[in-house]
């Protein structure tokens, strides 16, 4: 596969709003390439054109000008979507189906061969961690569960490219971390993932590359590390250093011709702190349950 | 192979559409009202219409089928279409390798299946009531008149139901066509009802046409007569059920079916033209 997973060239999308043909430019001359087996983040505030871009990539909307290809096939062709999975923003499904029925339904829509459907459905449901709730009706699912079952339906036909529109919006940090783990697992399996988000902290450690959109325009694009690292600074994290020790270190640094720019306490992000605490309690809870069970 | 795949997808979409529809309170209440109405026609037995009673019950039943069937066909099709658009389940569906025409065809078939069950139930209830009154009547009059056949041709009651169902198919396809370019539920329903009335009264234009001189007006009427199907063609209940001497020739039935299929497919394709350009 020499073609990139997604190639967008000079893409512009105008919506006509109002009666006098007033145009609203949702995407403005966007050029992007997403390579194979890459986790790509589409970042930007609400209304910056992320969903519109994704819908154009999927061929759900027509571009006003410009082109868009998936693995070399124009988005307009239905064929281009054969190997694409999509999780819409705030997904909504047929409520009277159970999670398993829903995933099976979409597997059949995507023409997964009959003999493989059972296994395919079970394995994606397990991948998204919905095995226990799979036989409950979708109507009873929480937001996080809907997101997971939506992820399962987007993966059931084993697509090479997966597009997730705001997969972590409205999901608690625990759920977001689980979704991030699934995305990493997909990358490990050789898939390409494009995800959009306005929650930047959750994306930071996940994406290989990001593009930042603002009012439909591409503001920045590149590797996360390249964008946010201070290129000419390094931080040392030390423990158990006395005041005299610190003075000595500072002297040593200055002797090297460098400068101690600032001293700060390393901080855990609140997200990471929350996850650590909750995980600890979860495992205690599980341990208690186990010991009760064995009594 | 891919044509078969297409049919599989259409069938799957039709299946969820139908299930969705059957779960709606609207369908269930309309069905119950219609059954009640058809059933209530037997209250008129106390007026003792004689054989006229059977005709009355039949007219009543066919009337209820037409009236509620038309309402159901338009509202259910609209509802089912907008349900998917507004809840964005259409988004999930169309992001898969599914053609928009397959989606529309699935929606149509689901609605059409709904109408089939509705028509079948109403026709069944009507036949049961007719049979009941028929036997009672024959028992009472049996000695006085010599019957040279059954009073009612029951097969034809179902044939009439079938033809009405074909008509509902055109109506559903027209409704989908309206829905394909409209943004709201209400607009779709209102416009579709207008279309229904036009199709119902279309024969008046046809009559006028035959009395017109050649000219652009005549041309206009002719054009309208072609664009809008003539729903009166399907209303041949009387001839069907009671005209003992003259059963409806098979060729006429086939012609009507062909007429229905052509208009249905044409409106679905028109809907597709709009739907392709629609932003989802
Ligand atoms: N169907 C539509 N009709 C008119 N305007 C739209 C439509 N869809 C999106 N927009 C507008 O396009 C802009 C970008 O929207 P969107 O792509 O949904 O942003 P994001 O996903 O980044 O929050 C917004 O200003 C939005 O109001
Ligand atoms: Mg969005």
From TrEMBL, chain A:
Residues in ABC transporter domain copies: 6-240
A single GO molecular function term of this UniProt record = ATP binding
* Keyword flag Transit peptide: no
The record's Pfam families line, in alphabetical order, gives:
ABC_tran
**UniProt KW keywords:** ATP-binding, Nucleotide-binding, Transport
Output the SUPFAM superfamilies linked to this UniProt entry.
Answer: P-loop containing nucleoside triphosphate hydrolases
What protein family does this chain belong to? Belongs to the ABC transporter superfamily.
List the protein's name: ABC transporter ATP-binding protein
